[in-house]
Write a structure and sequence with these properties.
By secondary structure, the chain is α/β, with parallel strands linked by helices. It has 13 helices and 12 strands. It has 2 domains: 168 residues, Rossmann fold (3-Layer(aba) Sandwich), CATH 3.40.50; 153 residues, Rossmann fold, CATH 3.40.50. The protein starts with 9 loop residues before the first helix and ends with a helix.
């Protein structure tokens, strides 16, 4: 089997390698294996935006559907300078496995625009979002493809997308995106969902390892929507959060950080740097600090072959997508480190996005206590399935999670057959 060069990227090669390895373990039929290696469809669009200085700048955007065999596609939208077709295609593939793993009736999708949102004004980001939405409108819809926030996008981005789509339909269509503000059909608990899901996965991991979550020392790379929430919830559970970082760098205090005061500091200053009674530390160094639990919740490929042997955590919970390279996976596994893979650990976001979508279709919204209870139930069930499969097959959690997710998608293809 050969790779399609138009999708060439490190992340896509990694995703293909994972699929090929697991396909052998599952003894997938060759024709189904081949179908899984390719996205259902991929759209590349040009996005002209009139910038605040009056000049027009053209950005490149993407939307990829990997699989539609289990239902409409679901996946985030990211704004970042590193966005390319290969990365978006790989992330769409991983979304297929993630949705199937946790039992959602979705296929995987992903979107992105190659840009630096931090260098753009709110007006420029709005124009970019509305034009991008218009360009990909033939691929999205509440029963076709439902975008959500991701790297560089947020609730406001989703509100602009929903409004743009709704204006073309002549009516409000809240189900076209998830991760929206509450006032326009968002779900209680959506903002905290990914971080909360990580905590639920860690509950189960410490339990099966014969430990307690309380008093565990935790380091978080990426004190944002995912890592920041996870850090706060773990701190409330009695964990000692000794180090956190953001895009500008990190801070460290071996005795622990007061996360409530740190959140106030971040709100006032825009970053974790300069927090009292802490030692400044780089984003690279923070990964190697002594701790029980490490949560890489920033960007991909942070745990690599050149630093994996210096990771001191006994549990790694992947808040980001693809933070551990295949080479680092092998090293961590050989050292006895338990890695809770991204398609399991950070699935809380898409689970509550599913809840939001269902609520939007019904125009009936649930209490936050119902959201968190159902999230915990789904995460616990998925973790226990993965742990049982890993134990039965003698494989690590990533392999087991991929086996479960890929098996379910492959079964969908097998049952539905090939048209025409």
């Amino acid at each position: 089997m050969t790779e399609k060069t138009e999708f060439e990227s490190h992340l896509y090669r990694t995703a293909l390698a994972q699929l090929d390895r697991v396909a052998g373990k599952l003894q997938l039929e060759p024709d189904i294996h081949e179908r899984l290696r390719h996205p259902r469809r991929a759209l590349i669009v040009s996005i002209p935006v009139r910038m605040d200085d009056g000049k027009t700048q053209v950005f490149q955007g993407y939307r990829v559907h990997h699989s539609t065999v289990l239902g409409p596609t679901k996946g985030g939208l990211r704004y970042d300078l590193e966005v390319n077709l290969g990365e978006v295609t790989a992330l769409a593939m991983l979304m297929s496995w993630k949705c199937a793993l946790v039992g959602l009736p979705y296929g995987g999708a992903k979107g992105g625009v190659t840009c630096n949102p931090r260098a753009m004004s709110a007006r420029e980001r709005e124009h970019l979002t509305r034009r991008y939405t218009t360009e990909i409108m033939l691929l999205i819809g509440p029963d076709l493809d439902i975008p959500a926030p991701d790297l560089g996008t947020d609730e406001q981005t989703m509100a602009w997308m929903m409004d743009t789509y709704s204006m073309t339909q002549g009516k409000s269509v809240p189900g076209v995106v998830t991760g929206k503000p509450l006032i326009v059909g968002g779900s209680a608990g959506r903002r905290e969902a990914t971080g909360r899901g990580i905590v639920y996965a860690l509950y189960q991991a410490t339990r099966v390892l014969g430990q307690q979550l309380r008093d565990q020392k935790v380091v978080v790379q990426g004190f944002g929507n995912v890592g920041g929430v996870a850090a706060r919830l773990l701190w409330r559970e009695g964990c000692v959060v000794t180090g956190v970082s953001d895009v500008k760098g990190g801070i460290w205090n071996a005795k622990g950080l007061d996360i409530r005061q740190l959140e106030a500091h971040v709100a006032a200053t825009g970053g974790v740097g300069g927090f009292p009674d802490t030692e400044p530390i780089s984003n690279t160094q923070i990964l190697e600090q002594p701790c029980d639990i490490l949560i890489p919740a920033a960007i991909g490929s942070q745990l690599r072959e050149d630093n994996a042997d210096r990771i001191k955590a006994t549990i790694v919970a992947e808040g980001a997508n693809g933070p551990t390279t295949p080479e680092a996976d092998v090293i961590l596994r050989d050292r006895g480190v338990t890695v809770i893979p991204d398609i399991l650990a950070n699935a809380g976001g898409v689970i509550v996005s599913y809840f939001e979508w269902v609520q939007g279709l019904q125009y009936y919204f649930w209490r936050e206590s119902e959201i968190t209870s159902r999230l915990q139930e789904v995460m616990t069930r998925a973790f226990n399935r993965v742990w049982a499969l890993a134990t039965k097959e003698g494989v690590d959690l990533r392999t087991a999670a991929l086996m479960e997710g890929i098996r379910r998608v492959a079964e969908g293809y097998k049952v539905r057959g090939l048209y025409p």
